[in-house]
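Researcher: Re-running this chain for the archive, since the previous output was lost when a drive failed. Same request as before.
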Amino acid sequence: MSGANLGQEIHQLRVESAVPETGANGGHATILVVEDEDFVREVTCEVLMSAGYKVLRARTAAEALRLVREDKTTLDLLLTDIVLPGRNGHALARDLQALCRGLKTIFVSGYPENDFARHDPPGPGTFYLPKPFSVQMLLGKVDEVLQNGAEVAEKGMAKSACGTG
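Model: Regenerated structure tokens:
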């Protein structure tokens, strides 16, 4: 994500007071954003909140796990960078999917998608968003993944449920 470009897009969203249109989950879904770069994390969270999502944020995998264990909110989506201090995004996703049955995950990375898939093939419920990304790319991918999750739930599979209690 180019900081200048995304920052400029955020500014434009504020100036125009126009929130990009989101799907049925905007305002109802809870997203955990895990990103170690402060600017990228904060702008990403701001974009998602502007679109009506509830957002939890963490800088590291350890912080994300602690947050999920302490917070009683059901997660709908994990949006995580692959490269994090300590544990990587793949390990975090596996840990959270063990706690939160059915949790959808978007991996964010500056690495090409074919490298991402070759090193750790994505499983069911995992998606990829390349850096740099625009506001529209971010919201489009989030909406796509959440819509996919809604279709799975309608077919009788359980929605994400975190075992935080």
